[in-house]
Amino acid sequence: MPSTPATTTPVVTAPVTTPAPTPVATPSTGSTAQPSVSVGSGSDQLLLKISQDAYNGNAQYTISVDGKQIGGIQTAKSLHSAGQSDLISVRGDWGQGNHDVAVKFLNDAWGGTDAKDRNLYVDSATYHDQNVPSAHLTLADNGAKHFTFHDYLV
Description:
With 154 residues, the chain is mainly beta. The protein has strands at 37-40, 44-53, 60-65, 68-69, 74-75, 86-92, 97-105, 109-110, 117-127, 130-131, 137-139, 143-151. It is 0% helix and 44% strand. The strands form two sheets. Strands 1, 2, 6, 8, 9, 10 and 11 form a seven-stranded mixed sheet that branches. Strands 3, 4, 5, 7 and 12 form a five-stranded antiparallel sheet that branches.
């Protein structure tokens, strides 16, 4: 019997397409949100994120830089427990070096339980889009708490 050449079916492969890479957003230390309140004037800007535990009214406070109060009495609106913050723009013309910021809590209230306690929080601060590490403060009683930021000559 004569041999018949074997026939083979050609293998066809589909072209391989490499998926396009998904771009990853670059983290930003600044905020694109608009400030809730803007106080002071000048070319320098310190952004504060402020929240509160509201009880029987909202927390009130003042902000001072290097011993000088900027703006009047501020009222917190965002709830700390909800992970919200008011964005406060504090403007001034601060020279090179370290600067002391004081946030003074004015109207602490206590109703006998943690659920009935008014507190104020500085959740974070940025200066020239740079995080200020020492600016995470809890104000559980009337009075001021401080942090420092540094202004580099640019």
